[in-house]
Amino acid sequence: MLLYRSAAWFAKGLREYTKSGYESASKDFVPDDLEVQVPGRAFMVTGGNSGIGKATAMEIAKRGGTVHLVCRDHSRAEGAKAEIIRESGNQNIFLHIVDLSLPKSVWKFVENFKQEHTLNVLINNAGCMVNKRELTEDGLEKNFATNTLGVYVLTTALIPVLEKEHDPRVITVSSGGMLVQKLNTDDPQSERTAFDGTMVYAQNKRQQVVLTERWARAHPAIHFSCMHPGWVDTPGHHPDGPHINLCAGRVCAPRSPPESSIWVRVRSAICGPQVCGCRCRASTPGWGPGCAPRPRARTRCCGWPLPPLPPPSPAAASSKTGNRRPHTCLSRGHRPHRPKRRNSLRSWKSWLGDLNSPG
């Protein structure tokens, strides 16, 4: 089954996660959504010294936002900071050297950070894909420690900081590779099976999505999102695995995915709606002050209907943010609420839809 799911997912990726998929999706982009300036808002970008993280930080800096780069490699991070300041003309770029695979270091960083800074948006972008089993100094499997535990500790520690600010958001850059993995709660550090770095990475990305859904339920004042950047040729690693080498010429440059991720981060219309990471303009009206639907807002995601939001609770109606629900969209073919078919003979296209099920 895993082989079948992987093959079906690869076929899906060729159609939707490559340059051609991005260009097809871009026909529905609304240019005005990115015509937003964000002076006075603070953004934290993990892994901001290269690839998608660096391109994201650059775009935020050009829009006047304060950027906190959280990186592990000091020399590369200094170079990225200097380049962002030079190209954007924005001096409000701060550098923090943190190893996300070390929970104690992350907690210590947050304790110091909240004494001196505020934060409106956290962007969990950093990640790794180690193909041979390695342990951190804490005895944790390195992929899990960085991609899952590091994201959990950083986000959890920063939630009190975010909740103090207006319109706080947390965006986690996941991966479409999670669609080939079901959540495995019995072996989070991949100790009981043969180690496969690609599948471990995919499991970590599944874990990130589940964490996002949990956080969104527990902290309704914060807008949580997950998004898939597509197949991107980044210098650090190929996040979706060795298939990148089979798609030479088809993968996206790091510049393209940040347009989708920046949309989630800065789009001014986000106020309690469903948000689709592929920028298909999917949204539903929010509840609370200022949450009127936009003229071009849809109640569909990638062509599939979204259910209406429930009536606001008394607490939500009186809050600044209203009801908020997490939304994960990992491709143009996302079917967020597709009912299961009773027919046991399913077409290949139906199986592709099933890859998006969270099971």
Automatic annotation (TrEMBL):
Gene that produces this protein: DHRS12
UniProt biased composition (Basic residues): 322-344
SUPFAM superfamilies listed in its UniProt record: NAD(P)-binding Rossmann-fold domains
Pfam families: adh_short
Name assigned to this protein: Dehydrogenase/reductase 12
Renumbered residue ranges of the record's region Disordered: 312-359
